[in-house]
């Protein structure tokens, strides 16, 4: 009986050892990058159409949004309040573009880093104010194939200096 059990285990191990490992699906990084660029174009359109629902739909439910002068928003309620107020601003105008998109080898996550120009109503002066800066957005690909933001951070400041133009002191 013991010999039969050992033989059965050896047969099972040899069968599984001969089975080729499942290969992970190859990720089409160029297609993912194109999808994210298209998403960001639609996102910018939602800003410029003052579409609060369109803006809110860019995020996962548990996403974080950090914006200059505002507390970190980590839930849909906080983001909705902020985005509703932003969309109601008659001076709102947004222009942004990615400088770099990285897609994870798994195809499940991606990041987009770029620059933006934002015009809004300054609450202190009630006049239009323009802010320029950089952003970093991390996306997660859903089961439906759509990319949604899970981390979205902006920081005002000068434009990014290309690596070739940067000098060391």
Can you describe what's shown?
β4 and β5 form a beta hairpin. The longest helix has 20 residues, at 29-48. The protein has a single domain (25-156), classed as Nuclear Transport Factor 2, Chain: A. It has 169 residues and is α+β, with helices and mostly antiparallel strands. Helices cover 33% and strands 33% of the residues. It is globular and about 55 Å long. A 5-stranded mixed β-sheet has the order 1-5-4-3-2, with helices on one face.
- Distance between the amino and carboxyl termini: 78 Å
State Rg: 24 Å
Structural class: alpha+beta
Per DSSP, what share of the residues sits in E-state strands of 2 or more residues?
25-35%
Instruction: Name the assembly state.
Output: single chain
CATH architecture descriptor text? Roll
CATH topology: Nuclear Transport Factor 2, Chain: A
Q: What are the segments in which pLDDT stays under 50 over at least 5 consecutive residues?
A: 1-22
Mean pLDDT: 86
Strand order of the largest sheet: 1-5-4-3-2
What about the largest sheet? 5 strands, mixed
- Total number of domains: 1
Please tally the β strands and state the result.
5
Shape: globular
Question: Treating each run of at least 4 consecutive H or I residues as one helix, how many helices?
Answer: 4
């Amino acid at each position: 009986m013991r010999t039969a059990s050992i033989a059965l285990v050896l047969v099972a191990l040899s069968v599984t050892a001969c089975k080729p490992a499942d290969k992970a699906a190859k990720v089409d990084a160029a297609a993912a990058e194109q999808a994210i660029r298209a998403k960001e174009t639609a996102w910018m359109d939602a800003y410029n159409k003052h579409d609060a629902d369109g803006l809110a739909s860019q995020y996962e439910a548990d996403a974080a949004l950090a914006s200059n002068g505002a507390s970190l928003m980590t839930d849909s309620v906080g983001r909705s309040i902020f985005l509703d107020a932003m969309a109601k601003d008659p001076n709102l105008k947004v222009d942004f573009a990615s400088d770099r998109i990285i897609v994870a080898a798994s195809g499940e996550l991606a990041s987009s880093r770029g620059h933006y120009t934002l015009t809004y109503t300054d609450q202190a002066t009630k006049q239009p104010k323009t802010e320029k800066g950089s952003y970093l957005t991390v996306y997660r690909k859903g089961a439906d194939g759509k990319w949604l933001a899970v981390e979205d951070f902006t920081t005002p400041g000068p434009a990014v200096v290309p690596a070739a133009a940067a000098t060391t002191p």
